[in-house]
Structure formats: C-alpha cells, structure tokens
Amino acid sequence: MVSQRGEGETTTTPAEAADKERARAIPEAAVARLAVYLRVLSGMAESGVTAVSSEELSQAAGVNAAKLRKDLSYIGSYGTRGVGYDVEVLVSHIERILGLTRNHSVAVVGIGNLGHALANYGGFPGRGFPVTALFDVDADLVGIPVGGIPVNHIDEITAICLEREVSIGVIATPPPAAQSVCDRLVSAGVQCILNFAPVVLQVPDNVEVRKVDLAVEMQILSFHVARRADEAASVSVGNNGLGVDGMVIRP
Amino acid sequence: MVSQRGEGETTTTPAEAADKERARAIPEAAVARLAVYLRVLSGMAESGVTAVSSEELSQAAGVNAAKLRKDLSYIGSYGTRGVGYDVEVLVSHIERILGLTRNHSVAVVGIGNLGHALANYGGFPGRGFPVTALFDVDADLVGIPVGGIPVNHIDEITAICLEREVSIGVIATPPPAAQSVCDRLVSAGVQCILNFAPVVLQVPDNVEVRKVDLAVEMQILSFHVARRADEAASVSVGNNGLGVDGMVIRP
DNA sequence: TACCGCTTGTGAACGCATGCACAAAGTCGG
DNA sequence: CCGACTTTGTGCATGCGTTCACAAGCGGTA
Ligand SMILES: NC(=O)c1ccc[n+]([C@@H]2O[C@H](COP(=O)([O-])OP(=O)(O)OC[C@H]3O[C@@H](n4cnc5c(N)ncnc54)[C@H](O)[C@@H]3O)[C@@H](O)[C@H]2O)c1
Ligand SMILES: NC(=O)c1ccc[n+]([C@@H]2O[C@H](COP(=O)([O-])OP(=O)(O)OC[C@H]3O[C@@H](n4cnc5c(N)ncnc54)[C@H](O)[C@@H]3O)[C@@H](O)[C@H]2O)c1
C-alpha cells in the first residue's frame, strides 16, 4: 500500500518520515513483541473490539503494561489518554512499522517432513507471507504440487526466486545441505532467511538470518527442569526442613 | 570465587554442589548459547577433534570469542591456558549443566501437518529427547502409528503422561485448542511446554513455556527488510549523495 | 466552563548482557 | 630451568532493555 518511499523530507509526509527515523531506533526485542501485539489486536478486531487499554492488551499479550506502552511509544503516540488505543489504528501502524503493507513472497527449500508441513500450512498467506516457490534436490519430488505449489528443482532456484521476487527463504534441508542452499538463496538476491537446520549459517552483512532450533528449545527447557530440581533439593536438604512446600525461603 | 550461600555440601559432592549453585546464576541468553556450543562440540567430537580454542569454537558457533569464554566460565573453569579446551570434557560439563544426563520424555499433542513432522523427525531421540507419546482428538488418527508411536486419544493424556513420565509437552494443535491442551498437560504434571500455536498460554509459575511462532519470525524479518529499504532511501536521497555504499552517516 | 478521574507517554533508575583488554597461567623450544 | 608465546578467565566500562512512577492530557460530568 502507498508508501512510495520517495525521497527524504521533501516528498514524504511528515508522519511517514517520522516513522522511518523511528524504525531505526526500535529495539530488536520490542519488534518481536510488536508482532505479538499485532496478532492479539487482529484477533480483537475480528471479535468486534474497537478500543483497548494498555492494561487489557498487555494481559492478552502476556507482558508488563509499562513495557507494552513503551513498545508502542517507539512507533508513535496513537493512544488517547484517559481512554486507551483504537484497535484499528494500532493495527495499521504496527503493520506499517513491520513492513507488512506489502506482501513478502516466501520460498521453502527442502520439501521433507518439515517442508511439507510448512507448504501445507494455511496460516502464512493470510498474514502477508504467500508461499510462492518450493525447492528440493530429490527428482521424485520435482513437479509434484504440495499445498498447491509444484516443487521445483534446486538448480532453478536463482531464476525462480528472481522471477517471483522471493524475499524470504526458508531452509528445511538436512544440516549438511543448509549452507550451500543458503549461499544459493543469497546469490538469488534473497536477503531474509529462516533456518530450521541446526547449523550456524555464514552470510554477508546485508542478509538477515533467523534460526529456529527445536533441539535448543528443548535443551533450554531441560535446563530449567534441572535447575528447579536442584532448588527443590537445596530447600529440602540444605535448609534442613525449614522450608515447607515449594516456597524458596532464602533470597 | 565459588559462591557461598550453599549448605548442600553435606550430602552432595563439592563439584556437584558448585554446579548446582552456578546453574542458578547462568543468564538465560547464555543457556541458549551453551546448547549451541554443545551441538558444535558434539560435531567436532564425531570428527575426531579432541581440543579446541575459544577462538575456533566461537567462530564455529557464530559468536564473539570473549562472550564464549564468559559463557563457559559460568559453568566452571575447564580450559587450559595456552592450549584451549578438551572437547570431551566440555561436552560432558555442558550436558550436566543443561540437565542432559538423563532422558526427557516428550509428548506431542496435535498430530496434523506439524505434529507428523515432529513425530517423524529422527533428531530428537539421539539428543536425549525420545518422543514417547502422541495425542490427537481426531478418532481417525487414534491407533495409527506415526514415527513408530501409536496416536492416543487426548482424553488419555493424564494417565499416559504420568505412566511414561513425560517431562516435555509439545503443543501442535490449532490455536483455539492450545490453552485447554496446555491445562491438561499441566494437570498431568508436565512442567515444560513447547508451544507452536500462535496464542499466549496462561500457566502456573512452576511451569516453563517456550514458544515457536513462525509468523512472528517472518514479521521480524519483514521489519528488517523495511528498515533496510528506508536506510537505503535516506542515504541515497536524504543525505543527497554524501553517503556512499550502505554506510549510515547520520547518527 | 471548571473539575475529576482515568490512562497514556516518558524521564530516570536499575539491572542484565556484551565486548574490551589484560593479568594469570599454562605450554613448548632451547 | 628459563623465557617467550599462547590462550584462558575476568574486572570493568558501556550499552541495551526493563521497570517504576508520575506529570500531562483527555473525556465525561455537573
Ligand atoms: N522434522 C522436524 O520436526 C524437525 C525438527 C527440528 C529440526 N528439523 C530440521 O529441519 C530440517 C528438515 O527436517 P526434515 O525432517 O524435514 O528432513 P527430511 O529429511 O524429511 O527432508 C529434507 C528434504 O531436503 C531435501 N534436500 C536434501 N538436500 C537438499 C539440497 N541440497 N537442496 C534442496 N533440498 C535438499 C531432501 O530431498 C528432503 O526432501 C533438518 O535440518 C532437520 O534437522 C526438523
Ligand atoms: N504447519 C505449519 O507449518 C505451522 C507453521 C506455523 C504455525 N503452526 C501452528 O501449529 C499448529 C498446528 O499446525 P498444523 O498445520 O499441524 O495444523 P493441523 O490442522 O494440520 O493439525 C492440527 C491437529 O490438531 C488436532 N487437534 C485439534 N484439536 C485438538 C485437541 N483439542 N486436542 C488434541 N488434538 C487436537 C487436529 O485433529 C489436527 O490433527 C497450529 O496452531 C498452527 O497455527 C503450524
């Protein structure tokens, strides 16, 4: 939509220019939360809710109310004191800041277990991320449609990514293939990569990589179990009976 | 150096007690990285590498060398100055800190696109996370084995989780079902939950939740694309030629 | 219009995490 | 046995992110 990102302050509206400058200053952590607020707000809008206070929204998003207000303040002052926020207004401003005013075409590479799930998932197109290309090295898969999109051979990746203006590449290949797939995506001009393979990817500075590592997530959970078990042990043994139920006594 | 506050020394060995006390102090961010180091180190061990310096390991893990050393220092001093770290030793210490010395049984709830992929994935059991139970509400799925494990009906979740000592529950149901599934997992004694459904789960304090939200990941990538585009525009037009290549000029 | 109560937006303080820089501590060659 | 070289472990400064607390601002009410 709009935002023909023209030049500096001469042709853009003051509001747009202000947004651009602000975008640079938004903390990474706040960006992630803004995406969550957006989802919650979208849900509210669908339910017919038109206004919301920082307290309500923060509850629904599972964060501290002050943090929520600060996060929203990064994108501008669109609330009304004494009242709250207009849901629609907030949605459109967050969408603008997150760059969701245009679609981002997605390519999935590696159509195995995970690739199939991603290709079949209906949740992305509706949120502005249409999956427009699938790639695999396996000749048996090439040509077969998955989730409505036919699989192409990995060797066609450059041509097809350029043609379909892919802006996000998703890597769902086995670990050994990930770096080479990544390199090919990068040389096809893809600047955003979401990596499911448990390997550290090397990319140029102008490419943004985010990784999803399920084994790491589970290990973090495991750490917390262990920590909790230790704490419980300390309380019951170390404090020698002073601690009742699970409460930690010492500060 | 070693942190007081411990009285646990009476029943545990000093080394164990020291670990337990340290575990409490490890920053969350460092825990996530330790899991990455562990994966890299395991790969090195398999390749026959026996020793590694902080510089090498940090390269392989994609982090700053000083940060890596600090992370490792949280779990103790197991390096040799002038030489580096023994791979095996480091692996075993990280595993101990992360609580990986025992297996953590995993249950997957919601055997749809994503649930199938998870159940079929061979990478978890090898890392100490055997998938031991699958649940779905769909009668057509119940009884059918996926990845070698038969699917059970969701109503059996409490009994089976207790019986198989499930410690991690993975939620891969549609969003509306997620909270109720979560509640059932919690009442079955599961204290760790990995949630793929795009909803904020409410849980008691003694339960740890981690979420994987792919739409949020993509939106973060989208934000960076937009920011980059804006910067490019500012530099080429706003600064009126003063900025060459991608460098940001104004602070 | 003037007041009241409510909610936002933000300055300021705090706490956590990162990265630097270097002393301490070890190896290895001679 | 010594001295040069290498690499760890960490004190310290810096920057980022979170939280508190409250003035400013707005709608409603009399
Ligand atoms: N399935 C899961 O639940 C899961 C969980 C965690 C991590 N992962 C990771 O995600 C990745 C994919 O997992 P999966 O279970 O789907 O694996 P999979 O083996 O089922 O699928 C991998 C696919 O990638 C294709 N492929 C291999 N080399 C390729 C290349 N060079 N170019 C293009 N395609 C290529 C294969 O033909 C295959 O279709 C792996 O790295 C895995 O570690 C998967
Ligand atoms: N598939 C993906 O790639 C993907 C990507 C991002 C997010 N997600 C999220 O992951 C979740 C699962 O996605 P999916 O594509 O596998 O969905 P899906 O519809 O294919 O599968 C959902 C499964 O959950 C089962 N189910 C429904 N209610 C249940 C209940 N109360 N108890 C137990 N099982 C129940 C259904 O029978 C079905 O088998 C969704 O929340 C989705 O938003 C999926």
Automatic annotation (TrEMBL), chains A, B:
Domain of life according to the entry: Bacteria
Tell me which stretches of the chain form a coiled coil: none
Which controlled-vocabulary keywords does the entry list?
A: Cytoplasm, DNA-binding, NAD, Repressor, Transcription, Transcription regulation
Q: Where does NAD(+) bind?
A: 110-115
Single Gene Ontology BP term? Answer: response to redox state
Extract the InterPro entries matched here: CoA-bd (IPR003781), NAD(P)-bd_dom_sf (IPR036291), Rex_actinobacterial-type (IPR058236), Rex_DNA-bd_C_dom (IPR009718), Tscrpt_rep_Rex (IPR022876), WH-like_DNA-bd_sf (IPR036388), WH_DNA-bd_sf (IPR036390)
> CoA-binding domain spans which residues?
99-200
* Cellular compartment(s): Cytoplasm
Pfam families attached here?
A: CoA_binding, Put_DNA-bind_N
The annotated region (Disordered) lies at: 1-21
A GO cellular component annotated for this chain's UniProt record is: cytoplasm
Principal subcellular localization: cytoplasm
Q: SMART domains given for it?
A: CoA_binding
Mention one GO molecular function.
DNA binding
Q: Where is the DNA-binding region?
A: 36-75
Q: What does this protein do?
A: Modulates transcription in response to changes in cellular NADH/NAD(+) redox state.
> What family does this belong to?
Belongs to the transcriptional regulatory Rex family.
Binding partners and assembly:
Homodimer.
The protein, known as: Redox-sensing transcriptional repressor Rex
Q: Could you tell me which species this protein originates from?
A: Lentzea flaviverrucosa
